[in-house]
Specification:
Shape: elongated
Largest sheet: 9 strands, antiparallel
Low-confidence stretches: 27-32, 469-473, 475-481
Number of helices: 10
Structural class: alpha+beta
Number of strands: 27
Strand order of the largest sheet: 4-3-2-1-6-7-8-9-5
Radius of gyration: 38 Å
Strand content: 25-35%
């Protein structure tokens, strides 16, 4: 092949490659990437306005991803709800575009009075074209859309309109009592009949009122978690009726949180309100605000705690590894002794046939050092017989490596109203605790419960006497005949 011809072919190939790269590839990419309704980045949005035939909602971004409602009320917005809506608007693709014949009757497409108009203004002052969302197409689950200044009509998903159709309560922050849990230093719970005050000290939580009982720290955290999780289901702005009409003057229950030294948050719980389908909600009021919140009716029960609910119900609490011996004595004198042997393995003084269940022994000791009651049955009782503790069913004594007693625990049982109940009390303690049945059963053990019984031996075919084999063969021969 001649040199000029080779050069000519190279030029043609280069030209063809350039055409594919600069013309065909961009066109193919444009065909696969459908245009979006609007082009913007949601982090750059300053204000978002949603206009409906009967109302208008305006929001402003105060920081990246954080929003406030500015109209028709001024309030904190639900950041997640607003950001999800903007993501929908940012990503929404145009599935098809139409050029209607003149003159265009926008009413045919629901665009003369659109169900919703979206207006975005960016932080640099740029105003994006308003987007009018019309009615649904007759078929295809699409909706008509038109941008300000664009005569074309576009089709998008029906879900696009649904995602932009909002009421104020859907875009409003529903957290009723926001606070930092670690900053809470005092909790006061008041009703018409009771008053409970708990305070956090350097040593932990304690009762300020009604008495200096020990406090269950996990119960405090559960209560604070309940307060954190309160969410409004609806709102009442500037109620016209007196607060007594909502059960808030006086309130059914009031919870006050002290945050640090200077901040105090108060939540007042009022009456129930009947809602559709036979359900109910409950009125709440926060601090001195004019807004009333409607929340789930069961919240009053969750917040109505007694002193007992917050009291520490630990019968004993012994550090791990401290116990080296446990002696169990039953009513009448029988019992057994567990001892920690070599390599911290637990042993029992009573031998039995089978394999010792060391894991069960270890769990028995763990259950003892972490023993907790279910309820407090009595404080400083003069008579222990109602709890079966005057002559305990089981006595447990835990000692350390020096032989010093770490704790002595009495377990009792009685029958009350044809129901068997179980109780526990520590020697020298002031309180009697109710035990759940399954907790009592963990200690209601005999030595054989800690041994795995051997499997019963079965006769193998090799051990079957020859006479039995002969008899079986004779039967088979008779059957064949």
């Amino acid at each position: 092949m001649s040199v000029p011809r080779t050069i000519l072919m190279l030029v043609v190939l280069l030209g063809l490659g350039a055409y594919v790269y600069f013309v065909e590839l961009p066109k193919a990419k444009q065909d696969t990437e459908k245009p979006t309704v609007l082009t913007f980045e949601k982090e750059s949005v300053d204000t978002l306005t949603l206009t409906y035939p009967e109302r208008e909602i305006s929001l402003q971004q105060t920081a990246v991803g954080e929003w406030n409602l500015t109209a028709p009320i001024q309030a904190k917005a639900d950041d997640t709800a607003v950001n999800n809506m903007l993501t929908t608007l940012e990503d929404e693709e145009v599935t098809r575009s139409l050029t209607p014949q003149e003159p265009t009757d926008l009413a045919l497409y629901g665009l003369a009075q659109p169900p919703v108009v979206v207006h975005l203004v960016l932080q640099d002052g740029t105003t994006l074209p308003k987007v009018s969302v019309g009615k649904d197409t007759p078929v295809g689950f699409s909706v008509y859309v038109q941008k300000e200044g664009d005569p074309q009509l576009h089709l998008t998903r029906q879900a696009f309109r649904l995602g932009l159709t909002k009421h104020v309560k859907e875009l409003r922050d529903k957290a009723v009592l926001p606070f930092e849990r670690d900053s809470v230093t005092r909790i006061a719970i008041d009703t018409s009949e009771t008053s409970i005050v708990l305070a956090k000290t350097d040593a932990g939580w304690t009762f300020e009122h009604p008495a200096p009982y020990a406090v269950d720290a996990s119960a405090i955290q559960t209560y604070l978690s309940t307060l954190e999780g309160i969410r409004a289901e609806d709102f009442v702005e500037q109620p016209l009726l007196d607060l007594s009409a909502f059960g808030l003057d006086p309130a059914q229950l009031t919870v006050s949180l002290h945050l640090g030294e200077d901040t105090k948050r108060t939540l007042s719980v009022g009456d129930e309100k009947s809602v559709d389908a036979g359900t109910t909600q409950r009125y709440l009021k926060r601090d001195n605000g004019e807004t009333l919140y409607l929340v789930r009716a069961g919240l009053l029960k969750d917040l109505s705690k007694s002193v007992t609910d917050f009291r520490d119900k630990a019968v004993v609490s012994i550090p791990e590894g401290k116990i080296t011996q446990v002696v169990l004595t039953r009513q009448g004198g029988a019992g057994f002794t567990l001892s920690r042997g070599e390599e911290n393995a637990w042993e029992i003084d009573s031998k039995s046939e089978g394999t010792l269940k060391t894991a069960t022994l270890s769990q028995f000791v763990t259950d003892l050092r972490e023993l907790r009651g279910f309820e407090i049955a009595a404080d400083n009782p003069e008579d222990l017989s109602p709890y079966g503790l005057d002559d305990p069913t089981i006595t447990l004594v835990a000692t350390d490596e020096t032989g010093e007693k770490l704790a002595t625990v009495f377990l009792g049982q009685t029958t009350q109203e044809e129901t068997e109940k179980h109780f526990a009390m520590r020697a020298g303690g002031e309180s009697v605790f109710t035990l759940r049945d399954y907790v009592f059963s963990r200690f209601d053990k005999n030595p054989e419960d800690f041994w795995e019984k051997p499997e019963p031996e079965t006769e193998s075919a090799e051990e079957t006497p020859a006479s039995e084999h002969r008899a079986g063969a004779d039967v088979q021969e008779e059957l064949l005949e």
